[in-house]
Amino acid sequence: MLDVPVYQNAAVGVVLPRPFSDWVFAPATERGTTTVIFQPRDGSLSDQLWGALVLVPFGSGVPLGAIADRRIASSWRATLGPNYALLARDSVSLDGVPAIHIVMSGSINLAVLDVEEYLLLRDSTLIVLQFRYPRGQPRDSIAAGYARALRGFRIRSTASTDLPVSTVRPSDRPAATLTSRPSPWSVTLDRGLILFNLPAAQRAIAPGALTSELVAAGRRTMRWSPTVGAADTALYAVGHFHAELRRAGRLTIRIWRSESADVSINRATDALIGLAAEAWGRYWRAFGPVPTTELALVETAWDETRGGPAILFLGRDADTTTIRRELSRTWWGGVVRGERATGTLVERELPEWSLTLFDARRPAPAALAAALAAAGEPRWREALRTFLAESRDGGPALATFLRVLGDSAAQSLRPLLH
User: What is the pTM for the complete model shown?
Assistant: First the structure.
């Protein structure tokens, strides 16, 4: 362990202050790759409250964006598990060097967290600077410490003489050199509302209605109130957005257009907007109304499209099937919550089954097909409508759903329930 104010690597020319005075550095080198963990002096890696500086020998000629995409696909998607989501991907600058900034969420060994990374190339070295934000910890204070480390991060010429460790301070580096870097943000639950505190130039888009937005002292505060289901701090996007409104009959479609020039942003085309409007109408008639007539579409750089209550975050896989399946989560996951006993049924099987409303020839999930066959079409649809109606003001009304289905059909669903 290195209990010093600043870590520096003379070979690469990297200088990094620690976020807090009681944090230490733990450098290690294996097969040419240097990994420097920084964490609380008495902390444990399993707490996920730590950061890392990784220095990797790397060849030239590979675009930085491709490196970031490969790292996301080959490492982070598996590491962060089934709840993985890419929340942000930006082109920024660190100490005058072009960098890719990514933010992801997910879980590691049951610990839910956000991970922020900066990737940049210096000569023949890939530099990765990583910060971890475990959920349940005071994010504002953690973000403030990480921001101090980032303000003091320097990339020096290896031919120059570095400042001694004891004289390198975060304040030595002009803040203006980080103007293109998004500052850390926080997301919290505040009396049933989702509260964001972030840089004034950015917006956070979440499910529900935007009830207040205040910009002051270079910061933006946004409060979102859920319109369908409970507040959820696990699904949101942060970036530079502006709103565009469309109408499709009685439905208002609010499109959050990304102002980023990044070619990886998935745009809400007229075809996708029409597809979403058509699916919304079909589900409204089949499953019953929800307490909003506004649907949000959010342009993101995410790999996967993700749906929530009355909202779609558009990913690279946005096609007819994906849009329809994810939009059904307004009802399956929004109106009926996916809790421990019903998680597989509500979060996986019913969204897949919902696609059969558009194509009767499409195979339904096996357990649901067996339940439908046992109950018959009229009883199946009655059970679904009852499930939705009885679940609106609380937890999923599973017992009522199974009772309406009947014993034989309910037995087919038992493998999906915990």
Answer: 0.61
